[in-house]
Amino acid sequence: MATLTELVDEAVQAHPDAVAVESPEGSLSYRELHAASGELSDAVAALGASTVAVTGGRGAAWVVAVLAVARSGARLVTIDPELPAARRTLMLADSGADATLRVDQDGHHLSPLTPPNPTPSPEGAEDRPADGGGQPDAPGGYVFFTSGTTARPKAVLGRWSGLAHFVHWQRERFTIGPGDRIAQLTGVSFDVVLRELFTPLIAGATLCVPPVDVATRAGGVTGWLRRERITVLHAVPSLAARWLSTAEPPPAAATPAPTAPTTLGSTDVAPRLTFFAGEPLTDTLVWRWRQRTGGGRVVNLYGPTETTLAKFWREVTEPVPGVQPVGRPLPGTEVRLVDGEVWIRTPHRSHGYLNAPEEQRTRFVPDPGAPYLAEAATAPPAPPAVPGPAAANGAASGGATADGDDDGPHGGPLWYRTGDVGHLGPDGELRLTGRVDFQVKINGNRVEPEGVAAALRAHPAVHDAVVVPRRRADGAPYLACVYAAPDTTGVEEVRQWLAERLPAAQLPSVLRRLAQLPLTANGKVDRAALPLPPDGTEAPHTPSAPHAPAAPHGTTTPLDGIAPHDATGAYEPFDAAALEVFRRVLADPTATDEADFFEYGGTSLDAAVLTVELLTATGRRLELSEVYRLRTPRALATALRGRAPDQPEPIPHRPESEQPAVTGLSPQQRRYRAVYLPRVNRSWSNMPALFPLPDGTEADGARDALSRVVARHDALRGHFVRVEGDGAGEGDTDGEGDELAQHFVPLDAVRVTVGDVDLRELPEAEQSARIEEMRVAEANSPIDIARWPLFRATLIRHHGARSTLLWTVHHMVSDGHSQGLLRDELHRLLGPHHPGVPTEAQQDTGAATDTAPHPPAHPSPPLPQLPISYRDYIRWCAERPAGHSLAARDHWRRVFAEPYDRPLLPDLPGVRQPARGTAYQFPVPAELLEEVGGYCRTHGVTAFSVCFAAYVNAAHRLFARDDLVVGTPAAGRARPEVQSLIGNFISLVGIRHRRGETASFDGLVRLLQDRTLAAMEHQDYQYDQVMEDIGAARDDDRFPLTTVFVSLVDTPAGQRDSLATAAHRDLGCEVKFDLMGYLRRCGEEALALDLHTRQGLLDRPRLEWLREVFLDELRSGLKGEGTV
Predict the structure, then answer these.
(1) Which residue in 96, 195, 360, 701 has the most C-beta neighbors within 10 A?
(2) pLDDT at residue 58 above 90?
């Protein structure tokens, strides 16, 4: 097969006058490109340099420079001038550059480096045949960099012949040739840029270079692609999604879009070929890209830098759900799965690492024939190549080209261990599922902990450092670091020093200083003795008695993380209480008294729990805003010490035998009835959920466990009857809520039924589809509040031994927090003692449980006693002094001092069920989530506040309103007695924002955070009371006062994958609001925005447009360019 430069020369001879490069600075024909690069190549050769660093931005002159170095036989390294100076210096040194070729508006500037860097070679490469781009005797090749386990990135020496093999294959396989216009959009320091450059130049096509500021110009990248009539491009999935964010909203469709989005009548871009690589490609992005591009071909590529660009490919015709397979090997490529790890062998791989001999030995290995290795799987051959204008025998044969391949110690070609985990599907296509090495993914970014430690060891005062990955109790990964340094080198200094040198994803969340690191007997670091957070553990919850300090003054119990109060070793009780509560709520049992609330990703919900638990532990009250301002356990303790005791009377509890059979409504029930059910009951009050139960759970066991939960929680025994005449009974509340009385079924009359559906005889795919059908049907079937029970339960047996409870409850008697309580209590009762019901012979001691409605089939373990019942709470609310809410009422009257017009989206025509709910959930890209985390740590704000600001700006655009009130739920559980109680406690508050109130995105984030905190502190004044005060009318169909909402929802670590892909879905039930945005987070590792709306208001294209608007507002805001 011809060399790379010979392939370019063939294109020059065949198409001398065709445009080779088109850029803002001008165009070059193939003839002109050949002449300019030849002249410059002669100059490079005359200089005698072995490795030339080309620096400068994309453009025609840059293309000339790269081609010139390739033709000269020198080794090429490309360096982006926008990289930090320290990183550029490392790249020059590790690549062995002895000359630079700088490209700017004045042309090319070739100069030797003094002193020159020595030219490195991969270990064992001394006898390797040379690999010049066009001259076999030159040192040759090209250098690109990947992340490494040291402070330096790893330099990979690529082969021109390997690059030639790939671009030749790509040209032939996809018939790329004259008339094609190929975009160059990749940064110049990434190896993919060579694919973009040389594929068109060997095919007689045109390489099109965009303006430097293309992303910020009108229309963005997609507009440029359309204007320049681009036919072929390469893209990273997350970048492609970002490009779509600049598109204007598509016209609203008259009817909801089908499951797979159809092609729009007017497309933004129209490439015939899009190659995706570098990240997992999802079905949603494929659909969205095709929707914008008119249905061009999409190809998924995979391959590490070490094996030369892509080594697997798959044309995506009909996307499979979720992440797309990476397909089959290129010609000449083999794959094996060794203990699940993907190993690749190809004669066209790179030479390996220039500056990492240990990595070279462990990554490039002989044939895995040793007996301890798992059985290997070899992929089937790729389909035959598509015939092209030139014979493809050399490219497809699989034979090595003139440069040959390195041999292992046993004489066979070496395999590259990718570190990726995957499997071969029944169709022979490779599917990737994760990583096996010591790398950890922080917010989607591959991080080498040892590389972070190596960077820290470069600090002039740090003697040594150890960095290890850890996980919070909620599953979110982070880095923890212990370093040895004098006590004058504080944590904040080290943190700032690292921040100036490392990306945000590589910054440790926990930093601990020691004078010296502990050593084992043989002189190695004793990792077991390091003060590192335990992995995935959480401090045990042992609440102190209410209104009492956590420990008596003068206790000498050791407490890591804070200094003793005096020389006797006594600890200040407020310090101990603040630290213990902080550790428990933020899920880090080794946090110190200097730990920062925002560094742990603290949210308003975390702050609320902190205030409640601190009140319980110390008898002193802090407000939510004080947690945000004080931030550390030490500062919290100082504030508590100076605070007068706040000892409210506990909510009185009465035993079941003394409880009334009929009560009024709680404030939250009254609010819910006034807002959602003024006259009619609708399916939007349903709360359907699927709760996985222990494998093998039977219907009888589920019924017994659920019966015990219902017996404990009297809210689940309530139903509502319209009252005529006098009040409803004990606990009457003011207003129209008095028209309903709440009746409670006695314990001895409770009969819980659980349906039983067995799907195991169906094919597995049909089982999942049937479960979703059942959930949608449940969601769309209203629950009559006048008849008990206000819930339905069905046990679904499926997929072998799996058991799932389909649970639907009316919102009048439950809320989101209660759903989690129910799930947890069922799990405690059902497992792991018995597949149906636990076997321990113990009785429940819950406050509400005097008698059991069903004798359990097997005795069950105890559940903790409930301090009060829901009827106790109703009575307490009704008996509170009238003046307790005056401050809250005044707050809301100030918020709505100016008249407010409710925003309403226009109805779409022709929708058969306009109120039926539809949802669209999409992930926040990992690199953007990383930026959010860094912003929060820098500015002392929550991730919710940052995303809320972007959401508010997006809502302003959607509703075309300058004045918006965005509602958000408040947990309503400020009292410690109600933390573990099932019932409706949730409140709604409104945050008002007018465009132009702040001058920057930073100001908007701070403003919304402050207003959210103020709203939470006045949440007891219910939404219906605010409506009455300002004269907002009730509405049977649309939400009153405002119709746009946002909410933060925590997702369990086991469900993290559910946040990774975008998907539309049918909610089944009706919804009353115009727009609800659920920010679903899993620790700091994953975040998705789940948009809920009515089918009659927003269709799929409009929801996808809103996604791009939200992400665009978030990106631009973090860069200081956002609207306010």
Answers:
(1) 701
(2) no
Residue ranges of E strands in 443-509: 445-447, 464-471, 477-484
Nearest CA to 919 out of 777, 741, 1103 is that of: 1103
Above pLDDT 70, what percent of the chain?
Answer: 78
Greater pLDDT, 540 or 38? 38
Q: Is residue 965 located within the same domain as residue 1082?
A: yes
Q: For the ranges 37-51, 365-379, 876-890, 1047-1061, which has the lowest average pLDDT?
A: 365-379
User: What is the rounded distance in angstroms from the CA atom of residue 289 to the CA atom of residue 263?
Assistant: 10
CA 837 and chain centroid, separation: 37
Looking at residue 327, the DSSP 8-state letter turns out to be B
Q: Shortest CA distance to 1073 belongs to which of 895, 953, 917, 900?
A: 917
How far apart are alpha carbons 1116 and 1111 in whole angstroms? 9
Of 33, 45, 106, which is closest to residue 73 (Cα–Cα)?
45
Task: Please report, for the domain that includes residue 610, its CATH number.
Answer: 1.10.1200.10
- What is the tens place of the pLDDT at every residue in 717-742? 999 999 865 544 444 433 344 589 99
N residues, the chain: 1124
CA distance 928 to 1115: 7
Give how many domains the chain has, as a whole number: 5
Q: What is the CATH number of the domain that holds 678?
A: 3.30.559.10
Tell me whether residue 433 is in a domain: no
What is the per-residue pLDDT for 217?
A: 65
Tens-place pLDDT, residues 878-911:
998 766 678 889 999 999 999 999 999 999 999 9
Long-range contacts at 762-766 (CB < 8 A, ≥ 24 apart) = 764/799
The domain in which residue 568 lies consists of 538-642
Tell how far CA 1055 is from the center of its chain.
12
In a domain, 945, yes or no: yes
Domain-embedded: residue 429:
no
Q: Are 473 and 404 in a shared domain?
A: no
Evaluate if residue 924 carries a pLDDT over 80.
yes
Q: Six-digit token pair at 158?
A: 């690529």
Bridge-based pairing of strands 415-424 and 364-365 is antiparallel
Alpha carbons 563 and 570: distance in angstroms, whole number: 9
Distance CA 673, CA 214 (A): 52
Judge contact between 460 and 454, C-beta under 8 A. Answer: no
The partner residues of 994 in beta bridges, in order of sequence, read 963
Residue 539 has pLDDT above 70, yes or no: no
pLDDT of res. 259: 35
DSSP string, 126-190: TTPPPB-SS-TTS-B-EEEEE--SSSSPEEEEE-HHHHHHHHHHHHHHTT--TT-EEE--S-TTS
Report CA-CA distances (Å) from 1016 to 392, 891, 983: 68, 11, 19
Q: Which of 105-109, 470-474, 487-491 has the lowest mean pLDDT?
A: 470-474
Share of the chain above pLDDT 90, in %: 38
Q: Nearest CA to 861 among 827, 825, 829?
A: 829
Dihedrals phi, psi of 1113, to nearest 5 degrees: -65, -40
* Same domain membership, residue 381 and residue 451: no
* Pairwise CA distance, residues 168 & 175, whole Å: 10
Structure confidence at residue 709 as a pLDDT band (50, 70, 90)? very high
Give yes or no: residues 774 and 913 share one domain: no
pLDDT-derived band of residue 130, with 50, 70 and 90 as boundaries? very low
pLDDT at 93: 86
3-state SS, 201-248, equals HCCCCEEECCCCCHHHCCCHHHHHHHHCCCCEEEECHHHHHHHHCCCC
Amino acid in the structure at residue 144:
F
For residue 483, the domain's CATH number is 3.30.300.30
Token match 């509170």: residue?
880
| pLDDT at residue 257 in the model | 34
